[in-house]
Amino acid sequence: MDLDSCPKGSEIQLGLKISANQTYDNSLQSNPAYSVVKQYFVDMDDTVPQKIVVHKDSQRGVHFRRAGPRQKVYFSSDDVRACIVTCGGLCPGLNTVIREIVHSLDYIYGVDKVLGIEGGYRGFYAKNTINLTPKLVNGIHKRGGTILGTSRGGHDTTKIVDSIQDHEINQVYIIGGDGTQKGAAVIYEEIRRRGLKVIVAGIPKTIDNDIPVIDKSFGFDTAVEEAQRAINAAHVEAQSAENGIGVVKLMGRYSGFIAMYATLASRDVDCCLIPESPFYLEGSAGLFEFVKKRLREEGHMVIVIAEGAGQELLAAENSHAKSEQDASGNRLLQDVGLWVSHKIRDHFEKKLKMPITLKYIDPTYMIRAVPSNASDNVYCTILAQSCVHGAMAGYTGFTSGVVNGHQTYLPFNRITEKQNKVVITDRMWARLLSSTNQPSFLSTKDIIQVQKKQHPPTPLLDGDNNESAISGKQSNSMA
């Protein structure tokens, strides 16, 4: 792409191509499903800006290549031998993505050689493969989990690439979260080092919605919807007892998006606690005082807490506890929901001699294991088709994602360099506070520190919490 063809001051993030030659006509030209589409090919020069709200005199920022079918493709359908692997934790929509990759390769491009790698990354050299056909995957979107299985933890990159060569695979589709995408980047670099004409394409997966740059990750809508069931149960229990309290722990190791959106959607939550917003128990503006105030006013209350919230309080109380990690290298979190429940009981029943009825609900694994809802099914379809279009066109080292409502191809480093977090000095968190009428638990000093941490100086205007505050220069990648 000619740099002059982009808006003034743009920095272009385009990803790599395995070859400059695209020698085959796209089979969409003869596909009856697309015959009524007025413009079904994406122009090679189309880009999507990362930021769409800017000051009038500021530079235009980063642009990404627009996703979609190209008029010319790199691969002949007969030459493609693709594989799909799922890694990391479970998330609604995994099976839908698998299904749509297989269907897109077969129905749109006529590719009939697609392997499923069983058991995550280690499955490349430690497990069997299965042949994925449209018939085999046709109904899997109605099931939770992943038909390919998954695993966490390290893997041997050399063995993986050896296996890719042995199976003569030339398109690798990797579905997983930030750790998985970091692994995909390493595999991609090893393939480049060996000079192999192999595509490595990712689809970002995280139920916590903590991947930066993209609008949201698949499975998030389903998780928020399913969380309503737990919140409703907690509300019914709390409402049915004198001084009833329902505590619901939701996913969110480092980012509180599920807790925040589930709270806003429910309207039955009185207090939402997330990792990005510190809270404290004692004192005139602490959690205990707010619980007492709400019980006196309403007679019951519901608390939603993300799993990563308050971990510093638990660590301070149990300073001798060992810091353990899971297979993916993530710090193992203590059960903050159970801890807060015990603290509330002890404070009200033992210290204040005030009887309460507290119910603690942890729906984590129930939420992870459900099939994706209608919204996520549509989203997964679009992500998978866009990913296949990019791979067939010869792009590699990219992740398929939606930026500002448009399908894009993002280099791996852009989605692994940071985590997307709730910006508690932006409007969405203010909307939650006004909805629950809870205190912010932040002093003036805390707010200043948060603003410095979450809002580094930038000429671009940050949007609401569904956008990531990304800054810093990145090198252009073209071949």
UniProtKB/TrEMBL annotation:
EC category: transferase
Residues that bind Mg(2+): D178
Enzymatic reactions: beta-D-fructose 6-phosphate + ATP = beta-D-fructose 1,6-bisphosphate + ADP + H(+)
Phosphofructokinase domain ranges (all copies): 82-389
Metabolic or biological pathway, per its Swiss-Prot or TrEMBL entry: Carbohydrate degradation; glycolysis; D-glyceraldehyde 3-phosphate and glycerone phosphate from D-glucose: step 3/4
Record-annotated active site: D208 (proton acceptor)
Keyword vocabulary terms for this entry: Allosteric enzyme, ATP-binding, Cytoplasm, Glycolysis, Kinase, Magnesium, Metal-binding, Nucleotide-binding, Transferase
Record entry for activity regulation: Allosterically activated by AMP.
Keyword ATP-binding assigned: yes
InterPro entries membership: ATP_PFK (IPR022953), PFKA (IPR050929), Phosphofructokinase_dom (IPR000023), PKF_sf (IPR035966), PyroP-dep_PFK_TP0108 (IPR012004)
Site (Important for substrate specificity): G179
Stretches for region Disordered: 452-479
Annotated family: Belongs to the phosphofructokinase type A (PFKA) family. PPi-dependent PFK group II subfamily. Atypical ATP-dependent clade 'X' sub-subfamily.
Name of the protein this chain belongs to: ATP-dependent 6-phosphofructokinase
Protein species of origin: Anisodus acutangulus
UniProt gene name: PFK
